[in-house]
């Protein structure tokens, strides 16, 4: 009899242990949090442009999930030059981040290589398309559309009939900004002259300042930049010209850059052609956390879905009205903006 009771007790304890174990695994599974991190291109997360927008999007997502910056949460690695891309990606892989973003087309080869070696990790590349990798989501933006509106704003504002464009590195992506800007200017007034210059870098503010200063000295009174950190120099040139009595403007890029145009006595930011990289990073992080990551697909953001747009910083009421009219024409398909 005692043996039977002992056997029953042992069996009961074993079942209890198994149930407790199952309960613990279930709780752990439910409590598992998704983690995500990004690798910057040459700019930092405080570049007031592309990389900063991406980081703010990731940070917003992380905080909404109750995560903290660091391992098992959200994080970033900063690249000083192209040679840092793959080592930085590998650091994040080693730290077991579930989703890794490459911020900028320059990281596409590094992302493709890492994705091939790590098929269970989600990767996303911004501003490029990586083919043949089922674990890579490619994110693109119709920046020609927002740049078209920047061109409309410039054309509606110029008093000299001369405007400028300062690009960072001459590439397919930055050429879409140039193309859209030119089309927007010409849509309003085909007689306006558009001067185009490239700095050859996204991180050389001194070169941006030199190029923009030459433009303002050449009576180009509105300059649109798509140059990342180099664009800081464009703002410096505009503020210096304004302090010397010239009425000049800058059209900012990627984020609302009104703050960058502020100086004692005024503000030189006319408008900002925004590209909502942060929105894309936040969206893909949400999808990945729900096991709905769009690996192997290209996700495109445009005016219609609020992925790109223009912010009115200091436009006149008539200029803003015209910009809004053209925005509607693009959204309803009446105008198609070419990326080239």
From TrEMBL:
The keyword Signal applies. Gene3D superfamilies: 3.40.50.2300. It is found in: Cell membrane. Residues 37-337 form the ABC transporter substrate-binding protein PnrA-like domain. SUPFAM superfamilies: Periplasmic binding protein-like I. InterPro entries: BMP_lipoprotein (IPR050957), Peripla_BP_I (IPR028082), PnrA-like (IPR003760). GO terms for cellular component: plasma membrane. It is a lipid-anchor. The keyword Ribonucleoprotein does not apply. Residues 1-20 form the signal peptide. Keywords: Cell membrane, Lipoprotein, Membrane, Signal. It holds the Pfam family Bmp. Belongs to the BMP lipoprotein family. PANTHER family: ABC TRANSPORTER GUANOSINE-BINDING PROTEIN NUPN, TRANSCRIPTIONAL ACTIVATOR PROTEIN MED. This is ABC transporter binding protein. It comes from Liquorilactobacillus capillatus DSM 19910.
């Amino acid at each position: 009899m005692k043996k039977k009771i002992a056997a029953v007790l042992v069996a009961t304890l074993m079942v209890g242990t198994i149930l407790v174990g199952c309960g613990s695994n279930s709780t752990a599974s439910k409590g598992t949090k998704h983690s995500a991190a990004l690798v910057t291109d040459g700019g930092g997360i405080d570049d007031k442009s592309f990389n900063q927008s991406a980081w703010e999007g990731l940070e917003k997502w992380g905080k909404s999930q109750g995560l903290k910056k660091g391992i098992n949460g959200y994080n970033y690695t900063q690249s000083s030059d192209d040679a840092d891309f793959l080592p930085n990606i590998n650091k994040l892989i080693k730290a077991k981040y579930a989703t890794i973003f490459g911020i900028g087309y320059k990281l596409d080869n590094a992302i493709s290589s890492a994705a091939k070696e790590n098929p269970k990790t989600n990767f996303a590349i911004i501003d490029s398309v990586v083919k043949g990798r089922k674990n890579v989501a490619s994110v693109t933006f119709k920046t020609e559309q927002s740049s078209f509106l920047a061109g409309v704003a410039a054309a509606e504002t110029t008093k000299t009939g001369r405007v400028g464009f300062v690009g960072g590195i001459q590439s397919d992506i930055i050429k879409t900004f140039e193309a859209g800007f030119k089309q927007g200017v010409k849509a309003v007034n085909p007689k306006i002259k558009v001067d185009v210059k490239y700095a050859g870098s996204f991180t050389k503010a001194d070169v941006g300042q030199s190029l923009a200063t030459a433009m303002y000295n050449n009576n180009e009174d509105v300059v649109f930049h798509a140059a990342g950190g180099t664009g800081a120099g464009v703002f410096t040139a505009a503020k210096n010209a304004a302090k010397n009595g010239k009425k000049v403007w800058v059209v900012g890029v990627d984020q609302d850059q009104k703050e960058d145009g502020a100086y004692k006595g005024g503000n030189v930011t006319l408008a900002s052609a925004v590209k909502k990289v942060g929105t894309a990073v936040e969206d893909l992080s949400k999808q990945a956390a729900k096991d709905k990551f769009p690996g192997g697909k290209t996700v495109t953001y445009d005016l219609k879905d609020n992925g790109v747009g223009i912010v009115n910083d200091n436009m006149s009421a008539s200029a803003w009205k015209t910009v809004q009219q053209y925005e509607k024409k693009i959204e309803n398909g009446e105008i198609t903006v070419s990326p080239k």
